[in-house]
């Protein structure tokens, strides 16, 4: 098995994170990996916000402002969410009008970039948890994070050192979700 394949097969979302978070050298390498995501027409449809330290308190304030919406968790829960990790990376998709690139491809490119980012962080002993939820789509949160009208929040990536690795989640065998087309014998 190759080193890359082993890293992919060993990847897991880790919800229990603590300091330290990655430093600038590791982050720069991880973002360089994220920038290798498939990108039709080289639109670079992604950007990232690194949030740590006092920024986590500022994010808590932004999330709390969305608590008036009945679809949102309580203000107390929203305020506590940013303290689940020492660093949060907001992954943002920048939707651009292009005749050959539908918006879904920009979203998928961002998703690939986040996957590469998580693998690169894992290679340095860090872990992450990609989180979404009602706050991810709330206009107050978008405004608070400074998203433009053509941007969407792909998720908040909680990053840090795993407190304890969770047990491996059983994964399906490829024959459970892969078929040959057209079917053999036709």
UniProtKB/TrEMBL annotation:
Organism domain of life: Bacteria
Protein name: Putative NAD(P)H nitroreductase
Cofactor: record remark: Binds 1 FMN per subunit.
Family indicated by similarity: Belongs to the nitroreductase family.
Key word Flavoprotein present: yes
Keyword NADP: yes
Positions with a binding annotation for FMN: 11-13, 36, 40, 130-132
Pfam family, one: Nitroreductase
Uppermost EC category: oxidoreductase
InterPro entries according to UniProt: NAD(P)H_nitroreductase (IPR052530), Nitroreductase (IPR029479), Nitroreductase-like (IPR000415), YdjA-like (IPR026021)
Cofactor dependency: FMN
EC code: 1.-.-.-
């Amino acid at each position: 098995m190759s080193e890359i394949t082993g890293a992919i097969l060993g990847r897991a979302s880790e919800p229990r994170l603590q300091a330290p978070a990655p430093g600038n050298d590791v982050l720069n390498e991880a973002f360089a990996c994220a920038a290798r995501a498939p990108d039709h027409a080289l639109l670079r449809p992604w950007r990232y916000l690194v949030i740590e330290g006092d920024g986590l308190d500022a994010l808590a304030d932004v999330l709390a402002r969305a608590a008036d919406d009945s679809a949102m968790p309580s203000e107390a829960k929203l305020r506590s969410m940013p303290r689940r990790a020492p660093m949060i990376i907001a992954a943002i998709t920048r939707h651009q009008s292009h005749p050959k690139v539908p918006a879904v491809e920009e979203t998928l490119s961002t998703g690939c970039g986040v996957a590469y980012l998580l693998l690169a962080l894992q290679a340095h002993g860090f872990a992450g948890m990609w989180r979404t939820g009602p706050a991810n789509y709330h206009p107050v949160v978008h405004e608070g994070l400074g998203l433009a009208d053509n941007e969407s929040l792909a998720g908040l990536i909680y990053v840090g050192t795993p407190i304890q690795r969770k047990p491996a989640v059983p994964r399906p065998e490829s024959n459970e979700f892969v078929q040959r087309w057209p079917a053999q014998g036709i």
